[in-house]
Design a protein that fits this description.
about 240 residues; RNA Polymerase Alpha Subunit, Chain A, domain 2; 2 domains; five-stranded mixed beta sheet; 3 helices; elongated; YbbR; YbbR-like domain-containing protein; c-di-AMP_regulator
Length: about 240
């Protein structure tokens, strides 16, 4: 009788231990599942995407009625980062984006300034990195003046054994707008055809107008028109 009770006791203890081990294993697996799920969720939530956009225009805010600005690149490269791919794609597309790159020049005196660029109106959750993040801008009082136009064909544009005769342009003068300092350095406005070469007969084509100093350096200006028709007489050298 004593042996039977002893066996029953052992059996009960074994069952109890098995139950304890079962519940422990089940609880541990549940906790591990919750931890794994939370970890996966955090990784998913923290995943980010980056898209780099080139040639984003810079919006210069200034008094363009009275001032002229020059000396800066008109575009910038922007790297956008976000965890939402849909928003990132929308901002990457020029036709649907809401952000813009701006800088405010109002209140600055004439001269050369290093200006910080800012990505404005970025959607929530989107970050932007600009390259470059600053630009150098020359600000000056806006002035205008009319200059006569000179047609230019250089000797190295002629074929060997040919010489240049009369050069005419269908535009006699153009209005030049720039800042006071630049205006003081303008020597003349010329009409050039940089793509013309090895000329061995009379030439007629579209020329580009540009303002230059007395060294031939092209100056930053706005012209009342950008192009003209140039005609040149080319003769064979005897």
């Amino acid at each position: 009788m004593h042996d039977k009770l002893k066996k029953v006791g052992h059996l009960f203890l074994s069952v109890l231990i098995a139950l304890v081990l079962f519940f422990y294993a089940t609880t541990t697996n549940y906790k591990n599942s919750i931890t794994t799920a939370n970890t996966t969720k955090k990784v998913t939530e923290s995943e980010t995407y980056t898209h780099t956009i080139t040639n984003v225009p810079i919006e210069m805010r200034y008094d363009n009625e009275n001032y002229f600005i020059s000396g800066f690149s008109p575009t910038v490269t922007v790297s956008l980062t976000a965890s939402n791919r849909v928003i990132l794609q929308r901002e990457s597309d020029e036709s649907t984006r809401t952000f813009s790159v701006v800088t405010d020049l109002n209140g600055l005196a004439s001269g050369t300034h290093a200006i910080e660029l800012v990505a404005s109106n970025l959607p929530t959750g989107v970050k932007a990195k600009l390259a470059p993040n600053t630009v150098t801008v020359k600000i000056g009082k806006k002035v205008s003046k009319s200059y006569s136009v000179q047609g230019v064909i250089t000797n190295n544009q002629l074929a060997e054994g040919y010489s240049l005769g009369k050069v005419t342009v269908n535009v006699s003068s153009v209005k030049v707008t720039t800042d006071e300092d630049t205006m003081s350095h303008i020597d003349h406005v010329e009409a050039v055809v940089p793509d013309a070469s090895n000329l061995d007969e009379n030439y007629s084509g579209t020329a580009t107008l540009q303002a230059v100093d007395n060294q031939g350096n092209v100056l930053p200006v706005v012209l009342s028109q950008d192009g003209a028709t140039l005609q040149a007489v080319i003769t064979k050298t005897k």
